[in-house]
Write a structure and sequence with these properties.
single chain, 291 residues, alpha/beta, Rossmann fold, 10 helices, 13 strands, 34% helix, globular
Length: 291
Amino acid sequence: MMTDRQSNAAASPVTVLIIGCGYLGGALARIVHARGERVLASTRSAQRAGALASAGIETVHWDLDAGTGVDPFGGSIGGTALRIVYLVPPGLRGAGTADPLAALQRAMTRLRGENVASAVLASSTAVYGDRGGATVSADTPACPDDERGRRLVEMEAAWLSLMPAARVVRLAGLYGPGRVIGRAGLQAGMPVGGDPDGWLNLVYVDDAARLLDCMHRTPADIELGCDDQPVRRRDYYGHLASLLGTQLEFAGAVGERLSRRCDNGPTRARTGWRPQAADYRRGLALALAGS
């Protein structure tokens, strides 16, 4: 049953608020903007803000590592229903925010009391840990085995406690034009690390953005975004090397880490979403053409 606040949100003009609008957020912003809906994108990068603004997308500067200060919105979200998409990564790989849980709580504090229709957090399939090649879906419990995975699980729990309309989508390895996994290393002649027989799970950037866009339709708290075909590392890198015309050498040990195979079936059934780049071959063709 809808709450009074959700009923009001459904009847109000909608603003899609993208918090941490980087590579994936830009793809989502373009999809929403193209159908004539209002997008408000927050970023702490002046360069990113300029690129978004040139595409006609409203931007605000919001550094979630900073403490309290001037309201970044300045009244720009009043009177509209918000569909929030939170894309700030945990920041263990040289990007994102230094204290992800504190940053998320700052965002929650600022947005508490607004007319929120839905709120989606982008997480990662890293929360499942290494399952030795076993299959996982959105309905599989998290079982993190590293610090990044544990931080993501903490963020998920905090986000889902926000309100009944909060949702989480766990995304596989994101790639697309300008971000082809492994391309730079192969072109530099570097050997590929990791078990050649280990599994990779991927999702093309536009497919990930479309899933974020339809997450408000799912009855489930958590969904999983990946393509239809997990791929062994040797097959992915072998195909990419052939497309690039480079040599392939593996440096990883066999049996080192098999990871997991992700199944998007439950998510497809609940949301109606289906990846257009159904496997890595189609996705790499699109990504390299777009690059």
